[in-house]
Amino acid sequence: MTDPDPAVVDEIVREGATAGPRDVIERVERAHEGRGVERATVGAYAGALADRDDYAFDAEAFLEGVDAETTDADRWTGGVYYAVGDGRISLFPAAWHDALGGSTDVTEYVAFVQDEEPAYLEDLDRGGPGEGVPQRAVVEALTLLGGVDRGSARGLIAQAREEGDVVEDADQNPDADVYLADRVSEDTA
User: Fold this and answer.
1) Which of 51, 128, 140, 146 has the most CB atoms around it within 10 Å of its CB?
2) Taking 70 as the threshold, does the pLDDT of residue 130 lie above it?
3) Where are the annotated segments for Disordered (predicted)?
4) Per-domain residue ranges for the chain?
């Protein structure tokens, strides 16, 4: 188990009531190296949040919810947490860690979602029509699976766009869908 990072605890507290359980897990997972995060580490963060005088947090209910929503599914089943081995959980299934863990290639992420996990797109509030992957989803996957920070993830998407590997919706949406350039028709993006 790793001790809670006070900066992560502060970030969650600053976000307040808008930080749902998945947001808490995402921030904890992002702050710790490796495949997912140890369940015991999640428990330590829950305890640290509950101990705060400036934040109302029910650690017991949170952990019960996480446990109830954790699945052993190897593929995307939507809206749950995934057991990824060695007492660790993640927002992404083991198959995603196997295929993308450590990669920072934006095209690999977009192709994987489109080819291997289209059910993931059905769970997202989509940025636009078509088979693109919302930029925020690519950023989240790059941070949790690729091990880069959010700014670097956005930079990798911009670099892939500049190199002609991906295109994004042309509607100036900050959460535009990202498409593989070699799969897009002229009227898609």
Assistant:
1) 146
2) no
3) 162-189
4) 6-95, 101-183
